[in-house]
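Progress narrative, Year 2. Work on Syntaxin-43 isoform B from Glycine soja advanced from sequence curation to structure prediction during this period.
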Amino acid sequence: MATRNRTLEFRKHRDAVKSVRAPLSSSASSPVIEMVTTSLLPSNRSSYAPLSTQEHAPSTSRDAFTVGLPPSWVDDSEEIATNIQRARVRISELTKAHAKALMPSFGDGKEDQRHIETLTQEITSLLRKSEVRLKRLSAAAGSSEDSNVRKNVQRSHATDLQNLSMDLRRKQSAYLKHLQQQQEGYDGVDLEMNFNGSKFVSHNDEFSDVGFSEEQMTKLKRSEQFSEEREREIEQVVKSVHELAQIMKDLSVLVIDQGTIVDRIDYNIQSVSTSVEEGLKQLQKVLFSLMLLLTCIETLLSLYDCKLEHLSWNCLAVV
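Result:
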């Protein structure tokens, strides 16, 4: 029996069918991919029907089903979550870099300072990007249910970002305080001035010129260089603190909104509790009315039984 290998053609048509997208109904807004589970081979095995690779209307077959794609704002939410995780890792590295930079060392500390600046800029950039993505979440369109879910996700990310910003700001403020303390210590360093007789020159017995030794000049220059480096570090830290303050200010709006929603939820819970208590009172009234009704029914049944018994005795007496 002669056979033909249709594997390559089958794969080509299968890939083409996978790429075909059919629109949802009028109530949905996200795209879907329609997949058909019917057999690729017809019932008549003597011939092969070609598969169409053109787009078509949604299939009405009972074997067809659709797979919905997530809304576009889900990508923004995942990007924000990734940035938050990366920012946490960088903040941990920044804490270690701060501790290393504050330790006394024989080097000039420029490499540590560059590492700190790089980490600070990267963290600030991640927070800025997350803030932009967060604003895009509020501007996304969708149904009311989708909007509620999106707002909840937005408030959750806003709280995480604000906590990260506050943590970073505290660490930067502590580092700035230590830098200022070190700068004050070096400004008041004792140069141990040992006057050299050859450097002392008398002029009219009224004024004297005091010269510094080479060691003292070296210490003085080193102190000046250290002070300049610390000043640059302090300026950089102050700048990052100001940027974090602005980020926290922008995020506080969403957090305040979240607090308003929580207050509204508390109010709704209290309203529901009041309604339940009122409903319980009404239910008790209904139960009391039912008890009265049952009592009346029992009384009527008793009277009816008595009347039947009286009639039966009368009938027997007549007989």
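Residues 214-318 form the longest helix (105 residues). Residues 284-319 form one domain.
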